[in-house]
């Protein structure tokens, strides 16, 4: 489905944008929280945030401690738990205090951090059972990693050959950036290279205290041209989460290469809720 107005040959049908405007006038659109991947600054997701805001959504993106303020003396000691703490602040504010409906979008490492931050008490179903407003209504994963309870990135997959761990506790993507972001133009690739940052080594050693979330409905978009994650692995993650699976021909970073397409997929998933 595209965003242009289509016709069935006899009458004009509304576009997705028109439908979203009509829907928003009847029911408040959910707030969207984006949990980013590793090794990049939040600016990499600017196009995705802007496209979503243009459709009327309020969009939030918590900073991940394990790839922020990377020159600070305590950076090497930051772990998954620090990222989770930052994400929880947003969930607590949006759901518990403001009682908003929230959709969580997770990419790459964000699938691990976002899942670890989820609590059943924040699900729409649980809050409705206690006659409370708001809650997390849907999870949208794309090219996202997931961990089983009790596992870490290192214990599950080891250290990728594209990542170098330095003695100072910082990890860098030294090789294969073009493989990780193969669907980008040369201009986009140059932008990505400028936005790359180290990740703390503790991230890879951190253990997940809970497994994939199956109590909130979810969608998982498998990138069939993703050179960072094999399709078989992505499908396994989708199965772990009990997600509805969608496929695309893009690589690891559709938020940069095809943000308009990604937003249409997000909106389509929300329309099916």
Describe this structure in words.
- The strands form 3 sheets. The chain has a 6-stranded parallel beta sheet with strand order 4-3-5-6-10-11, sandwiched between helices. Strands 7-8-9 form a 3-stranded antiparallel beta sheet. Strands 1-2 form a two-stranded antiparallel sheet.
- The protein has helices spanning 16-26, 46-54, 80-97, 110-117, 124-129, 153-157, 177-180, 186-195, 202-205, 231-241, 254-257, 259-271, and strands spanning 6-7, 12-13, 31-35, 59-60, 101-108, 135-144, 163-165, 170-173, 199-200, 218-223, 244-248.
- It is α/β, with parallel strands linked by helices.
Alpha-beta content class: alpha/beta
**What oligomeric assembly is this protein in?**
single chain
Percentage of helical residues?
25-40%
Q: Could you give the order of the helices and strands?
A: EEHEHEHEHHEHEEHHEHEHEHH
Q: Please count the helical segments.
A: 12
Total beta-strand segments = 11
Q: What percentage of amino acids are in beta strands?
A: 15-25%
Topology:
Layout: E1 6-7, E2 12-13, H1 16-26, E3 31-35, H2 46-54, E4 59-60, H3 80-97, E5 101-108, H4 110-117, H5 124-129, E6 135-144, H6 153-157, E7 163-165, E8 170-173, H7 177-180, H8 186-195, E9 199-200, H9 202-205, E10 218-223, H10 231-241, E11 244-248, H11 254-257, H12 259-271
Parallel strand pairs: 3-4, 3-5, 5-6, 6-10, 10-11
Antiparallel strand pairs: 1-2, 7-8, 8-9
């Amino acid at each position: 489905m595209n965003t242009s107005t289509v016709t069935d040959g006899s009458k004009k049908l509304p576009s997705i944008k028109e439908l979203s405007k009509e829907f928003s006038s009847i029911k408040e659109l959910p707030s969207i929280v984006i949990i980013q991947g590793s090794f990049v600054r939040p600016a990499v997701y600017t196009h995705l945030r802007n496209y979503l805001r243009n459709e009327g959504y309020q969009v939030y993106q918590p900073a991940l401690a394990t790839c922020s303020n990377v020159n600070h003396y305590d950076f090497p000691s930051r772990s998954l738990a620090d990222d989770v703490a930052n994400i929880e602040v947003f969930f607590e504010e949006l759901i518990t205090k403001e009682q908003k409906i929230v959709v969580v979008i997770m990419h790459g490492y964000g699938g691990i951090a976002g899942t670890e931050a989820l609590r059943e008490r924040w699900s729409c179903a649980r809050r409705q059972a206690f006659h409370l407003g708001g809650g997390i209504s849907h999870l949208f994963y794309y090219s996202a990693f997931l961990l089983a309870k009790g596992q870490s990135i290192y214990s599950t997959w080891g250290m990728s050959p594209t990542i170098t761990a330095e003695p100072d506790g910082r990890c860098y993507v030294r090789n294969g950036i073009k493989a990780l972001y193969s669907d980008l133009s040369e201009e986009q690739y140059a932008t990505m290279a400028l936005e790359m940052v180290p990740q703390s080594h503790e991230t890879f050693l951190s253990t997940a205290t809970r497994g994939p979330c199956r109590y909130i409905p979810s969608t998982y978009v498998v990138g069939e041209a993703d050179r960072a994650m094999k399709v078989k692995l992505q499908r396994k993650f989708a199965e772990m989460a009990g997600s509805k699976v969608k496929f695309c021909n893009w690589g690891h970073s559709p938020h940069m290469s095809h943000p308009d397409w990604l937003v249409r997929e997000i909106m389509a998933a929300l329309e099916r809720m």
